[in-house]
Amino acid sequence: MTDTFVALSDPTRRLLLDRLSEEGGLTLSELSEELPITRQAVAKHLAVLESAELVASERDGRCKRHYLNPMPLAKMAKRWLVRFEDVPLGALAGYHAAPATRPAHHP
């Protein structure tokens, strides 16, 4: 799951996942359109997403098409987010951390 968190930590990779979520089967060229980075940079980001299993790819002739693989995200949500479903939002809004204790000052 560490690979998933690392992959999601980058805003460009999250943008690529958003685009694949909206329209799967995009090529590297299509994913690179309208991004302020090179095609090679997009390819490196895709490699990170593929190693985290967030993106699956398949060959289509000379093209490689990329698709979102939602399973790692679903596993993450089930493991980490489900436990907060029943927490009242008012309790979260009124959360007050315990005051930090300062070490006693000794002259």
Strand content: 5-15%
Mean pLDDT: 85
Strand segment tally: 2
Shape: elongated
> Low-confidence stretches at least 5 residues in length (pLDDT < 50)?
none
Instruction: Give a quick account of the main beta sheet: strands, pairing sense, barrel closure.
Output: 2 strands, antiparallel
Query: What's the CATH topology label of the domain at 4-68?
Result: Arc Repressor Mutant, subunit A
Please tally the helical runs, counting DSSP H or I stretches of 4 or more residues: 6
SS-derived structural category? mainly alpha
User: Helicity, in percent?
Assistant: 40-55%
Secondary-structure element series: HHHHEEHH
CATH class of the domain at 4-68: Mainly Alpha
Return the CATH architecture of the domain at 4-68. Orthogonal Bundle
| Cα radius of gyration in angstroms | 20 Å
Strand order of the largest sheet: 1-2
CATH superfamily of the domain at 4-68: Winged helix-like DNA-binding domain superfamily/Winged helix DNA-binding domain
Write the layout of secondary structure elements.
Elements: H1 2-8, H2 11-22, H3 28-32, H4 39-51, E1 55-60, E2 63-68, H5 71-81, H6 89-93
Antiparallel strand pairs: 1-2
Helix pairs in contact: 1-4
Brief characterization of the structure:
The protein contains 6 helices and 2 strands, in the order ααααββαα. With 107 residues, it is mainly alpha-helical.
What does this structure look like?
This protein is mainly alpha-helical and 107 residues long. It has a domain at 4-68: Winged helix-like DNA-binding domain superfamily/Winged helix DNA-binding domain (Arc Repressor Mutant, subunit A). Helix content is 50%, strand content 11%. It contains 6 helices and 2 strands, in the order ααααββαα. Strands 1-2 form a two-stranded antiparallel sheet. The mean pLDDT is 85. This is Metalloregulator ArsR/SmtB family transcription factor. Residues 1-88 form the HTH arsR-type domain. GO terms for molecular function: DNA-binding transcription factor activity.
